[in-house]
Amino acid sequence: MNAFFASGRAVDLVLALMLAEALLLLSLHRYAGRGPPPADWLANLVSGFCLLLGLRVTLAGAGWHWLALALIAALAAHLTDLKQRWR
Q1: Model pLDDT, residue 40
Q2: pTM for this model (two decimals)
Q3: Where are the alpha helices (DSSP H) in the chain?
Q4: 47 pLDDT tier (thresholds 50, 70, 90)
Q5: What's the average model confidence in pLDDT over 70-79?
Q6: What ranges make up the beta strands (E) of 24-71?
Q7: d(CA 40, CA 47)
């Protein structure tokens, strides 16, 4: 189990599940007219996805600039989410 987490595979699994969740929610909303509209949750999901991506690149030993890019993207998505909720 230690190797599973240390290798970053656990993060890969969570990222895949988040992508599946997004696709399911988008499909339900588009084809069945059910569930929240994507504008209500997409920025929040992208923010979390980018934070996990930052963790993943760090575990992979990538350069600091990849982590910085992921954190900047997470911040941008987070601020977008806050702006939408502020209304």
Answers
A1: 92
A2: 0.90
A3: 2-6, 9-27, 42-59, 64-86
A4: very high
A5: 98
A6: none
A7: 13
